[in-house]
């Protein structure tokens, strides 16, 4: 309480500053002089009384529920974007691929040494998976120095252990040894040469697959990718060791192949199902692969027309 010395009458107010709790007046004598001792008590708590009746609880409630509603709307929009964004991309010419983790899928590509048309198609497939399929591709053409350092057998063994999937690329038609292995030259876009290691790696991978034939879990790591459409309804010319492996036919099963490569990396957590980013590739990105497979199909058809008469002659004899 603050006290002041006032030489005049105190200011008069009709509203007391606080409620009077007690008032006493006593006559006392001090040094022969009679004086009045006036004492009073006030309720100090009444000096600062908050008026809770003036608080607008309605405005506070509206602000809280408005913020919660805005947060729910933003969350719903994000979930809808994650669910329907890929469909919108599909309408713009994109193909939806499976969701994937942040780390690319390690893939090993092994193929037989056939011809330049087949070689171009294999390179196009490896480049597509590397650039647009969220994969880390290991192929002999890109690691010839490493193969020369380690040797084909050791390199193949290490890459097979490191890869999540081993793609064994095969043509739809087996080219006989008497058939010339060549394709029309392309002077504008020279094709890649066939590495010498390809002649060794393919027999080695066949032996490796045969070694895992009795273990379905180990055999599931090896997939067969056939380039080109089948020429007839008969069983494809596929090595006996590969007939128990899961098979894909390009270009028909390209999207299925990409989905399958990423399917085993997905888990069942709801947060990942909602917030995991998706992958989509444009049709233009697969144009080079599609063109290479189309040229290979034309080359295979010409071989098929040349081989069929020879087979009929052998059968007649």
Annotation keywords:
interleukin-17 receptor activity; five-stranded parallel sheet; transmembrane; 42% helix; 317 residues; alpha/beta; SEFIR_dom; single chain; two-stranded antiparallel sheet; 3 domains; Rossmann fold
In brief:
The chain is of the alpha/beta class and 317 residues long.
Write the layout of secondary structure elements.
Elements: E1 20-30, E2 33-42, H1 57-91, E3 94-97, E4 105-110, H2 116-132, E5 135-138, H3 144-150, H4 152-162, E6 165-171, H5 198-211, H6 216-219, E7 222-227, E8 246-250, H7 254-263, H8 270-275, E9 279-282, H9 287-316
Parallel strand pairs: 4-5, 4-6, 6-7, 7-8
Antiparallel strand pairs: 1-2, 3-9
Helix pairs in contact: 2-9, 3-4
Shape, please? Answer: rod-shaped
Order of helices and strands: EEHEEHEHHEHHEEHHEH
Largest sheet strand order = 5-4-6-7-8
Q: Could you tell me the number of beta strands?
A: 9
Largest sheet: 5 strands, parallel
CATH topology name of the largest domain: Rossmann fold
Number of domains: 3
On the 0 to 100 scale, the average pLDDT is: 75
* Helical content band: 40-55%
Determine the oligomeric state from the structure: single chain
CATH class of the largest domain: Alpha Beta
The computed structural class is: alpha/beta
Strand residue percentage? 15-25%
Rg, please?
42 Å
- Stretches where pLDDT is under 50 for at least 5 consecutive residues are 176-189, 266-279
If helices are DSSP runs of H or I spanning 4 or more residues, what is the number of helices? 9
Based on the coordinates given, report the CATH architecture of the largest domain: 3-Layer(aba) Sandwich
Cα distance, first to last residue? 128 Å
